[in-house]
Each structure stands twice: as structure tokens, then as C-alpha cells.
Amino acid sequence: MKFLFLSFFFISTSLFSQNESFKIKSGDWTANLSLNEDDKVPFKFSVEKKKNSYQFTIYNAEEKIVLKDVEFANDSVSATFSEYNSKLIFKITPTELIGSWVNMSKKNARIPFTASYGYTSRFEKKSTEKPLNVDGKWKVFFNPNSKSEFIAMGYFHQKDETVTGTFLTETGDFRFLEGNQFGKELMLSCFDGSHAYLFKATIENDSIFGRFLSGKTYEGNWKGKKDDAFELSDPYSLTKITNHLPIQFAAKQLDGTNFIFPNENYFNKVTIIQIMGTWCPNCLDETRFYKELYEKYHNKGLEIIAIGFEAGENFVLNAAKLEKFKTKNRVDFTFLLGGNSTKKAASDLFPMVDGIKSFPTSFYIGKDGTIQKIYTGFNGPGTGIYYEKYVEETYKLIEGMLK
User: Fold this and answer.
1) pLDDT per residue over 181-231, tens digit each?
2) Is the alpha carbon torsion for 237, 243, 246, 251 positive or negative?
3) How far apart are CA 125 and CA 335, in angstroms?
4) Rounded to two decimals, what is the model's pTM?
């Protein structure tokens, strides 16, 4: 799937007749999440009034996100992201919307939210200088010269002063980024209900130096250099097999019963084991692709097992998250609960590899029950041609394994 299409915000006409304060002007709006006094994550959304409802659509480059689950209390509106455990809560004033983005997955972390009517560009233009061009690939280091340094590829598309693209890393991508390039300044943002990303940078010749903020709790530096020949490491090379015997593991099904692999349902089958979590946007993108893969090849012998690692130790709550995720995305393959959302928990379940380095990670199991390949991370639809290449190669891989 090239784009995300969720749905958003339906309100009955009877509600509007009872309370005029719930009327929201149709058209485009500019919203901001305030990370601190100086740094805001801007994003665009549109409001369309239909016969008996309003529809809100959030935009991040080619991505479109909508929310259906809406509740009203007095003069406040609560709109829940269907894919993640978060919501927008706001009041409607004559001139703007004022409230918070609340992320329940992070102990009800709150970030102030405001929105004003009208939209011109994602970021405010503060320079009259001619824009530079960042189109193409950049070799990037996040947190350079530190213990937490990691490498990435900046992959951008520029049209006039508008920039879209993403950062690909060896564990996943930063999804759909959108922003502007004014003078020597590059600014990009993304808000998808799970993350609020902000990138600010200064361009100097063929180099770039910037800051990266994720929500209110993370800030780091990054630097890059234009390099159209740069490529990241092969995702199949990052996680190593330490035991080439047939894979075995035990986990819980969502109804609480035990699941042991292998079992008779998977004998002489090609099986993908997906290590994931409902809190992980890259896992969501991968699950949507695996849904297509399963529908195409299940009747030819493909099985997929998604093993979720969720926050906390409450089995009932975590199983419910996975069941909701499965139902929402209309996925037919098997979901299990593996443990809490740590790489250690995932690594402990699979001692036959040298550690789980990323959510998601996928094991490709041959008909003989042994791991044939391990794919670490997931760079999804926001990466454009890289995602398209991955899809094509994965189809070929599965077809070859099924023969």
C-alpha cells in the first residue's frame, strides 16, 4: 500500500443543533504541538462538512490520517487515534482549537495542541533568500561522536520551497516527513498519533547540521553530507543466526492458551515470524504489507505469526491491544503475546540469534523449519523507491521459498 488511509471524525447533526459551540469551519487548518517555548511540530489538517458529519484529515506528505472515535463532554472534544493509544483533546473557540495531544502509552504524556484556520505552508517563512536544493541522498549521523551515534540516510524530494522525504536507518524509517527549505534553513516535521517529530537544520555547501526532537522527552543533534552513492547496510546482514537447528519457541495466544512452535499446522510450510508491537509505526507499516503478502500466498503454503511485545506485564490489557490491532487492520494471520516491549524480552524468546536489535524484526522460516533469512527493521512507504524495491524483492523471496 502506498498511502495510509485511516478515517476521522463523524459528529451527528443533532449534536450541532443542541450546541453551537461544536461548529468547526470547513477547509484547511494549521496545527501545532508545542514541545517547548521555541519548538513546535506543525502539521496540516482539513475539515470537510458532510451531510450529517464533519471529516478531519491529517496530512504528512503523502500520508493521510483520520480518526473515527470521537466523544464530547461539555465544550470539549476528544478524538482517539484508532491505530495508537493516544488522542487529541481540545476546546473549540471562535478563532482556534486549544487543547493537548495525550499519549496514554507514555503515562498520559501531554503536549499542548493549538490549531488556527487557514494554511499556506508547514513552516513560517522567515527568509527572503533563494532556497537551496536538498533533493537526493544524504549520509547522516545522529548524535555524532557519542555512544548513542547511529547512521541514517536522508532521502529528500524538493519542489520549490516544499520538502518531503524521510530518514532511513538500519532499524526503520522516520515515516512521512514534510517541511520547507527557506534560505539555508531546512525544517521537517511529522505527527501521526504515535510520534511528534521535529527536525531543524542549517545547510552549508554540501553539508547539513541540525537538531532532532521527538516529543517533549528526546533531543539530539545530527549532521549530514550530500552523497548520492550512499547506501545503508543490507537489512538481512544485521541479525546473525547462532544456532542453525530448527527454530523452537513458546508464547501465549491472545486467549491465554499456550502456543508452541513448531506444530502440525506449520509442518512443510514457509513461515514468517514477525517480532512487533502495536506501539510501533514501522510495525504497523510492515503488518499492512504482510497482510497483502498473506492474502496472496497463504493458499500456496505461506503462514505468518506476529508476536507482540507490549508495555507492562498485564496480559489481559496487552492481549486486548493486539486483538484490537488485528481487528482494525483486518489481519487473518496468527497473533501471539511474547512479553514486555523490550529488546531483552524478545531476545530471551529467541536465543538462536545474536539478539533482537529492532522492532520489527522478521524471521523467514523454510519448509524444513530452519531460519533462512532474518530481516532487521522496516523502511516503509515513506521511503518511496526503497519500499517499492523491498516489496518486489520480498515477493520473489517468498515465491522461491514456496517452490
Assistant:
1) 999 999 999 999 999 999 999 999 899 999 999 999 999 999 999 999 999
2) negative
3) 47
4) 0.88
Q: Cα separation of 286 and 360, whole Å?
A: 8
Which residues on neighbouring strands pair with residue 353, listed in sequence order?
241
Output 176 or 107, whichever has higher pLDDT.
Answer: 176
CATH number (domain holding residue 184): 2.40.128.120
Please count the structural domains in the chain: 3
Residue 319, pLDDT score: 96
CATH number at residue 372: 3.40.30.10
Give the residue from 291, 279, 289 showing the smallest Cα distance to 381: 289
Answer yes or no: are the C-beta atoms of 107 and 100 closer than 8 Å. no
> Which three three-digit cell numbers place residue 327?
481487528
Residues 367 and 251 in one domain: yes
Q: What is the mean pLDDT of the chain?
A: 90
- Local structure of residue 128 (DSSP, 8 states): -
Q: Could you tell me the pLDDT band of residue 145, with boundaries at 50, 70 and 90?
A: very high
Q: Is the Cβ–Cβ distance between 111 and 100 less than 8 Å?
A: yes
Average pLDDT over residues 24-47: 93
Between CA 272 and CA 352, with CA 315 as vertex, the angle to 5 degrees is 35
DSSP conformation letters of 273-308: EEEE-TT-HHHHHHHHHHHHHHHHHGGGTEEEEEEE
Q: Domain residues for 110?
A: 13-117
Q: What kind and span of H or E run contains 18?
A: helix 13-18
Same domain, 222 and 240: no
SS3 call for 180? strand
Instruction: Say which residue, 54 or 131, is predicted with more confidence.
Output: 131
The answer to whether position 128 is within a domain reads no
Nearest-angstrom CA–CA distance, 101 and 233: 36
